Amino acid sequence: MSAFNLNVDVNQNGNVKNADSSSTLDDIDDFDFSKLLEKPRPLNIERLRSLDERSLTELSASPQLRNVDSASRLHDHADYVISPSVGRRSGYNTPRSVQGFESHPMVGEAWDALRRSMVYFRGQPVGTIAAVDNSEEKLNYDQVFVRDFVPSALAFLMNGEPEIVRNFLLKTLRLQSWEKKIDRFQLGEGVMPASFKVFHDPVRNHETLIADFGESAIGRVAPVDSGFWWIILLRAYTKSTGDSSLADMPECQKGIRLILSLCLSEGFDTFPTLLCADGCCMIDRRMGVYGYPIEIQALFFMALRCALLVLKHEGEGKFLVEQIVKRLHALSYHMRSYFWLDLKQLNDIYRYKTEEYSHTAVNKFNVIPDSLPEWVFDFMPPHGGFFIGNVSPARMDFRWFALGNCIAILSSLATPEQSTAIMDLIESRWEELVGEMPLKVCYPAIESHEWRIVTGCDPKNTRWSYHNGGSWPVLLWLLTAACIKTGRPQIARRAIEVAEARLHKDNWPEYYDGKLGRYVGKQARKSQTWSIAGYLVAKMMLEDPSHVGMIALEEDKQMKPVMRRSNSWTC
């Protein structure tokens, strides 16, 4: 097993340090988050000229855009948009919290806990560890995970503390450049680490960053999602601070190109989706998500859109921008057509004929109707729908996955109608998806013989536990952002109230078990950092919905509307 080291002499040990502290695609208006507040109050609304609302067609066709500098790219071409206030603090012990937002007592405790999780390298904050739980063996919970740090980063950005986010982005970028080998096989140059930790040598008085690119992970799988989260976070940092200098650095531009080159390279693929192994994302153990999992496809789509906003559109970036635009069009069509499931689509699949041949086939993936699980017929409400877990030849995974569907809303991979349907589903199936602790990472759980085959008898992923139907508080921030973007903040408020009844009392567990999420997970770590940060981000977004702008993207107005699958499949 190899290690990837970055040695730096330091004068201080900072390993973990305490601190004080419904329309169509052609007619979509700019989203005004201020309308979602129940108690009107002034929002910081600036007249910004932003690329966020520019269409993919314009991006690929405009020669003027390719020649402008990066600063103007972030402030050219739009009308009034709400943007997160630069440097404004909110939440715990800040001026914003005194001005009418009644902060729950948990908020102060959450900020204290989040600051206790901060990791320092050479005296600078560079991330937050996965959990501060001294009652259990640390394993890899004392490391800074890329995906885990995202809600922490958003909390700090919303609170006007961007330094730790900037440091994190630069340190992980530096680690990307290291040679990565598992046994005798060298990984792609663009792979981002799953995690890193700070090792302090008290004798030599220096610190070392040690990265894990998958060689120490369960199943030895490289993290496909890390690079996508890195790009998404870079755009969030730029959007929040108004500072494009970080994204404009040659090193950052190269890092983006390396990540996307892994995904956009030509091969034998017949679909625009990414083929992945089990365990390559948040669900990091064998759970039958191999193939084309919705989580990865939604993150891929969002990372591509974010990359368009931070990439320089001239020089080395010009050709990549053209590739991104083409892929976005193909990916959005594929996902909206073949991954989407509602009552009508379910009935269509139920009536499929099989063994069709030629381009006129309706059942293009030769899905056998008898493979439809019984639970899905009762689960699907009359009004509602969702993106299913996976689509590949002769296989559809009909499970609901929360992260992929929330990201689909935030990235506008989902159309406005589909986004509304996802929210309708959550409301209609509240007991199943939220229950006594938000939010089910997937639904339903697999059990009995299917569990033995799919998970390999994994003792951690037993039914209604961990990734197999467990309830994860961290998903609260994604649910809240999706609710605000779709104009349904009351759903988020209700979910937060459910979480507040237990989360702090149970000492911020990693996950909950049981069909309703009633029990603290059997192997759940306490003081789980992203459970804490997810709660804080959800609260701050409800306090000031403009914060959603740093993580949400509006629909591309000129993207051609996709026909419903029952029509498009008969063309």
TrEMBL record:
Gene Ontology MF terms in the entry: endo-alpha-N-acetylgalactosaminidase activity; sucrose alpha-glucosidase activity
EC number: 3.2.1.26
Gene3D superfamilies for the chain: 1.50.10.10
Pfam families reported in the protein's UniProt record: Glyco_hydro_100
Superkingdom, taxonomy of origin: Eukaryota
Keywords of this entry: Carbohydrate metabolism, Glycosidase, Hydrolase
InterPro entries: 6-hairpin_glycosidase_sf, 6hp_glycosidase-like_sf, Glyco_hydro_100
Function field: Invertase that cleaves sucrose into glucose and fructose.
Family, per entry: Belongs to the glycosyl hydrolase 100 family.
Name of this protein: Alkaline/neutral invertase
